[in-house]
Write a sequence for this structure.
């Protein structure tokens, strides 16, 4: 039988983690983006090969998404966003993090907390990338193509078409209101 432990990070706790992240970024400034990505990937591999908590494993899924955002050429991440994510991944290049990774059960707790903090900051970027990955897989199945051929521009064009289609459907439904679909404020 498992045990659930819940804790809340105070403002000063969050400030402490922010300082730790800033120190990690400074230390990692000597590394290439590729080295930082490789180091984060190594942490992900180690965690995936251990028996750890669901909390940590769930955060590692977010880490995998962050890595994917940077290495996925189809996503076409803009340089400013790429830099933000590389800076977030810098923590995983630290040899001595807050809780040594070799401590059973707790070793990756600090890593998971850092990922949670970063995920909240990059919430919209993560969701957009996940939407893109789902779209790309669906389109690859629908078209019978290799998903590597589908990129961000394809996704954006398809999303634009979907939004326009939804807009037209809503407008048509509005016409069924009994007033000819015209708003009293409508100029058209």
């Amino acid at each position: 039988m498992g045990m659930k432990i819940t804790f809340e990070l105070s403002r000063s706790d969050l400030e402490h983690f922010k300082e730790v992240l800033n120190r990690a970024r400074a230390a990692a400034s000597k590394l290439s983006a590729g080295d930082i990505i490789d180091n984060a990937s190594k942490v992900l591999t180690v965690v995936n090969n251990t028996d750890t908590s669901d909390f940590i494993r769930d955060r590692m899924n977010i880490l995998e998404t962050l890595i994917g955002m940077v290495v996925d050429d189809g996503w076409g991440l803009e340089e400013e966003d790429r830099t933000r994510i590389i800076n977030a991944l810098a923590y995983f290049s630290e040899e001595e993090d807050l809780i040594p990774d070799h401590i059973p059960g707790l070793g990756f707790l600090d890593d998971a907390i850092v990922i949670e903090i970063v995920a909240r900051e990059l919430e919209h970027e993560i969701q957009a990338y996940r939407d893109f990955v789902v779209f790309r897989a669906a389109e690859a199945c629908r078209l019978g193509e290799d998903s590597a051929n589908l990129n961000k521009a394809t996704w954006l064009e398809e999303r634009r078409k979907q939004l326009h289609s939804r807009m037209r459907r809503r407008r048509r439904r509005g016409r069924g209101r009994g007033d000819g679909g015209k708003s009293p404020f409508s100029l058209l």
